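Can't attach files on this board, so I'm pasting raw text. These are the components:
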Amino acid sequence: MSTSPAISPASGRSLHRFANPGRFLRLSARVLPFLAVPALLLTLGGLAWGLFVAPADYQQGDAMRIIYIHVPAAWLASGGYLGLAICALLSLVWRHPLADLAAVEIGPVGAAFTALCLATGSLWGKPMWGAWWVWDARLTSVLVLFFLYLGHIALVRAFDEPERGYRAGAILALVGVVNLPIIKFSVDWWNTLHQPSTLTVTGAPSMHVDMLWPLLTCILGFSLGFAAVVTARLRAAVMERRIRGLLLAQAQGI
Amino acid sequence: MTHLPYVAASYGLALLVGVAFAADAWLRMRRAARRLEAIDPRGDPRRNRKRAG
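---
Top answer:
Structure tokens for the assembled complex are below.
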């Protein structure tokens, strides 16, 4: 009786096409300008649009303009962690050599965007709610996400043998994924001070189109910027790994 | 503009985070490329291709 593996080796084979560091460096050098330039234009354009052109909210006034930073930062906080978890899966299941490096490079960028989300939320909350912070389900679950990022950053650097750190970090990244639906649905599952989702996949957006377009522009710009920064950091990490390998080989007289 | 300090602080923080990460990534990439070029005879594949061309 023959048994077939749950995950076919063929499915991982195509993923390893980009595992070759030289191929990755060549490909990423071509892709990087197409990420960085639109990211810069869309982010600056979207922020200027939101700040100077989009109308103020009839209840919240100009404080609502914080949405053009807060929502893209929140999107990338969760999206970045999902990316981290995908890298963890690629590393643990297919042993993809670039997945570990990618996870290491996504961590600090994701943590910074989560911190930005929390900080801008606080700056928005103070004039609207009268408090910098409340132990609301949405805010608390995003704070947990920030700690998960910090835990991942610390864990991957905590071992003398990098492989062990990568594995421990990957397990933490996968376990932490359970927090993402909690963040998403926290405003529906609990009574929260935080407002419900402005943008949903199925429903119509709960904001005027004059505010929606600059917001979507900022989300796209921030996302491309995130991808550009992670790609650049990953390029640097691949080159640094090659440098370490060459220096080690030289030291051993190979 | 109402709530100007809060809005300005938010936009300032966003620019700070963006510029800091972009500059760090670019400098790190450039430093690594130069170092790799100095110690690896094959160097950066992209530069080698340009030289060969």
